[in-house]
Amino acid sequence: MPAGKKKISKAERQRLLQEEEERRQKEEEEARLKFEKEELERLETQRVEKEKWRQLEQKDRERRNEELEELSLLESCFPEAEKLKRETRALAQWKHYTQCDGSPDPLVAQEMNTFISLWEEEKNETFEQVIEKSKLVLSLIKKLKLILLETPPCDLENRIIAQHQGSILRLQELLSLKMDVATELLLRVREASTLVDVDSGNMEKIIRDENVSLFVWANIKKNPRYRSVKFSETQIGFEIPRVLATSNVALRLLYTRYDHVTPLRLTPATEEDYEPMVVEPVKKEEPIEKATTEEKTVIEEKASIQEVEPEPKQEREFSLVQEEETNLEVLEEIEVKRTSDHEDENSETNKYELEMRLLSEAVSAAQLHLVENIVDIPYAFEKFQVDLCHFSTLGGVYHLDILELPPQYKPVKGWVLVEIRQEGLQRFTYPPETTDEPDPENAFPPIEVTLEVHKDVIFFEDPKVIRWDTEGTARHQEGQRQGITAGKRWKTDGISCVYYDRENRLLTFNLDTLGPVALIQDAHINMPYQSWELCPLDVNRVVLTVTTLFIELQIHIKENLCMLASVKLKGQEHQCHLEGRWMTPVPFILALKEAGLNIFPALYSHFYVVVNNKVPLVEVKAYRQIALLSSAFVFRWSKWNMACNSTNVVIKVKEYQAEGAENRPWSLLMFSGDRAQILRIREDSDVFSEALKDNTEFHSTLYHMVKDFASPRAMERVRSSDSLFIDSVCHMLLSIRVLSYS
């Protein structure tokens, strides 16, 4: 045992252990008391919070009806806007009638049938004449499509839908037929022998227009060494095999800016989908006449009944008695009309209120349909078939054809002789269905094609090439719905060696057989969005900014018009032909889609995009109220919108002021369709919480929530907003769906 170390006695050790135990018990007691105190404080805080929450809910319930009534008055702008749009459509039809410009009214089936029949009877039209006529035809097709897309479903009967779609199909088919006939005329008589190239000995013809471009090459010399066809002053052309270089054929590239190949799919819903909301439009009653005018009208009507041939003398006495009785009846009717004037005025008011109520229900149903998602995938697709729900065609259609060269004219002793074939323009089958060649791969290789991609179409990735397949007899699910055979659809097979020169916008690929060709792009390439913002610019004018992975779009909205203000492609300014052009919402949306700027989800888009789907009714209510407030408040994307559940939406909002707007703080606002509240968390908080911000209350609407912190001037701007402007902002929000797709 080391020296100097004192041994602890048993009693001392016992004392130390006892002190340690007492200290431990004391610490445990202090911890228990502290926990109990904290628990009591927590329970008290919870009780206070619950009581405060209960009081806020009670206050919210007490004023709920009042707030909803005020919101209903503000939202009357939507049926008012629809009523104005109906009047605008009726006025446009009347203006067309009074113009008498010879063009048919697309709404009148008889005029459309007459126009189509008369054009069918016109013969020997040149290609230039067909192109000129096609401008009117394309205008009619566009008008019919807009009628189907813009008219609310409650105003469209199945008979009218079938009528308009039938007119569209007939115009498309007739236009295609006229193009073929004009091509035959071009090859047969007028040009084939007069436009022969000196070097090659073959014919070439190019006709360009804003909607149609024609490139024709006729193999006059049949030189087997001339296998590269390039149209002058372009990079467009073909590399043809030997068998075509020695055949009596012509090559045609007919490029159309429009797509009349893909089956129509204009009305996603039928009337049955809106059955609960379908209402007959209430006809506007004629204004009530003044009493004096009514007296004259009734007397004149009664008197007109008495205007007959001159009566014989023996019947005049009886006629005078009858006339006196008639006058007494007229006076009695006038007296009845006067007493019922007041009742008519009340009836007129009731009819107007009923009309607006029914119109409001119809508009609400149409808006709800815009944000609904279908439950099942639309179609079952076969191998190589293009899913047109996933992809969309862009830039029109390239009709590539190998044609049998029609007989050429021959001058004989001052006469011109030419053989006219009744069957018209014939396609040359390549490769042939039967061949004696043992090695068809070498005898009938693919044809190399080089095309120009239209400058007004934006491809964010290299375009994919598809071909229209007209073969096959089996029926397919989509074919059954569209009324076409299963073989008639876009496919991806038979295409190889695709190369895209992005700088020169040239696309080169090999085709096993020629036919209609189109370019496609993922319809959801710009979804989901990275952010969005809705900001006022002036009275009844806002800018909606949508930022995606590839682009940033700025859309200006005023009255019932929309305009593409700017496009930034990967951070760089990009000139778009649509910039600065004001259009109504539906044509504007179609124009953006055709340009490749698709930020408009469809009913089935949730199958192809990872989204934060919100309950449709909540989403619609949010968009309607955001549109109501858009004249005076800035709304912006919030990351917490993804964190909350599908029954809530979270957005950032602040009052807009021309000066110092950037310095004003944002409020995080959560809305469930029935309740709005300002959240305590900030955008840069770490964890999401639904806790209510201090010194704030619940409200039943977004309008009343922002009213708590808004200035009187801002609320005055909201109340004075134009109904068409609010409706247009709401339509764009419903079409882009920023709350579910960002």
UniProtKB/TrEMBL annotation:
Coiled coil: none annotated. Residues 9-31 have a biased composition (Basic and acidic residues). Residues 23-225 form the IC97/Casc1 N-terminal domain. One of its GO terms (molecular function) is microtubule binding. It comes from the Eukaryota. It holds the Pfam family Casc1_N. GO terms for cellular component: axoneme. Residues 1-31 are annotated as: Disordered. Belongs to the DNAI7 family. This is Dynein axonemal intermediate chain 7. It comes from Cricetulus griseus. The gene is Cfap94.
